[in-house]
Specification:
This protein is an alpha/beta fold. It has two domains: 16-380, Glycosidases (TIM Barrel, Alpha-Beta Barrel); 384-495, Sandwich (Immunoglobulin-like). The chain is built from eleven helices and 25 strands. The chain has a nine-stranded mixed beta sheet with strand order 23-22-25-20-19-16-1-21-24, covered by helices on one side.
Length: 496
Amino acid sequence: MPAKITVSLQDLSVEIRRELYGHFAEHLGACVDEGLWVGPNSKIPNTDGVRTDVVEALRKINPPVLRWPGGCYADDYHWTDGIGPRESRPRRVNIWWGQNIECNQFGTHEFMRLCELIGAQPYLAGNLGSGTVREMRDWAEYCNFAGDSTLARQRSENGSPYPFDVKYWGVGNENWGCGGNFNPEDYAIEYRRYATYLRDYGNSKLFLIACGPNGNNHEWTRRFFTKYGIPDPFANARLHGWAAHYYCGTAGTALQYSTDQWYELLHKATYIETLIKEQRALLDELSPHQKIGLIIDEWGTWHPPTPGRHPQHLWQQSTMRDALVAALSLDIFNNHAEKLTMTNIAQTVNVLQAMILTEGETMLLTPTYHVYDLYQVHQGARRANVQIESNEISFAVGSERRSIAALHGSASVKENVLTLSVVNTHASLPIEAEIVLEGASLDEASVATLAADDITAHNTFDDPNRVAPQTHNITLGNPPRYSFPAASVTVIRMRL
């Protein structure tokens, strides 16, 4: 079947929220220490202790929001450990990730400085699992109150006379697991209690986020809201977001996989679309009086431990396969932008599907980083409808056979420029497709392509630019056609 991509400009009413391109940083392995934070006395160039090269790289991809301090770590993190003079901050055992000693050199003020440097909104994950209502309530006042309270004075003494105005607050994390092993009814009770005391201060209007399901677990969602009590007016006012987690996992390992395993992982990545559709439908059914925001604040690949690395530090390489997982996921988010409020890929540096890997003074950008760089033009744009016709690719998973569409993509319009992003999942063959634009004409375009000659291609500290985008201008012809390279991510931009 000849491939065909049809883009319609008839309905541009849906905005692709910038927050759909969010990030996540946890105190885990070398994500914060050695990754984001080196300290002000480090020989590695830094700005107030934050690595300068990492800041510059992150700022370039326009991150809208950064979630911190976890993850599982959040529900054993006590925010008062991370304020005040650094030399007097306590040393704590990280019980979740290798029993590392956390020196708390990077705390609330350092995180806010990082967000300022990279241009991201802060998203704080609060400690419901091992903390107290008072503790989380005080953190909100410390961050957001502009008046003359003791906590506001303390914030000022610690270097921030003006409030941080933190909007996004997670009331616990994975409370079905590492966040306390609650059942949904008990978590609903705890959430109501905590949310009661998390207040708005001045112009700081809190967006409170409850722990949603592990994957697309309907039972967790249904049982939580049944117990929680919507459409109770109080409940409506104190719950704004519902955060699911979805890791597509792996097939093979990070660097060693067959062609069938290439397709298997890409296919698993597309399951996030089912989660979005079904969890959105459940939220609308269970909370018809309020549009609760659907959030996926942890997602991405999760490969087996890397040989030679601490298995609990979750360091992994990012190959072209990870890049296609990211692009497929972002295209799905774009295509369902009206259903979503935020997503946060896991994680920013040195952990899981990282944007950046560091080693001492050196740093490299992963193929996943390059996808975020190419796709940032979708942020804040108006979504255009895309219909893609292409062949299905068959592959084996054990004794079963499954299939995945060869081409996937999304489109948007901003400032009279159309952006079309397309993923060719075929491991070895380019695919030529006709491009039909309804409502405008096509001629010249700029094209940026992320591709490689090997489906396991990745960047290393010895060869940091093996996988990098290539950009050129083209004339699409009449009728417009384009050949998408094998195993690639392509972004075509055209002025309308």
